[in-house]
TrEMBL record:
It comes from the Bacteria. It comes from Actinoallomurus oryzae. This is Integrase catalytic domain-containing protein. Residues 11-64 form the Integrase catalytic domain. Pfam families: rve_3. PANTHER family: TRANSPOSASE INSF FOR INSERTION SEQUENCE IS3B-RELATED (PTHR46889), TRANSPOSASE INSO FOR INSERTION SEQUENCE ELEMENT IS911B-RELATED (PTHR46889:SF4). Residues 70-103 are annotated as: Disordered. InterPro entries: Integrase_cat-core (IPR001584), RNaseH-like_sf (IPR012337), Transposase_IS3/IS150/IS904 (IPR050900).
Amino acid sequence: MASVGSVANFYDNAVARALNGTFKAELIHRQTWRTRDQVEYSIVEWIGWYNHRRLHSTIGDVPPAEYEANHYRSINTPRQPMPGNPDLTKPSTAHQPKERQSH
């Protein structure tokens, strides 16, 4: 099996192999497939389940797609006004150093 990541990157290859092993154990080797179409349709369903419905304990028992969407929503949400600085277009001067006076 060729590496899916950069050359000699053990971690990338280990993650790919782990996912491939899970895929084979949970889907491919559990039944006898009659047609190629049956396999292909089942793979599409499994990938949908794996990304959109599978609860992942490491990320708070939510599906990976939901976790990713929440992450991007949190980093793309506009900043909320801070107390004492309701206008975000004008930075507060409360914590800025005073300008030096030239002599």
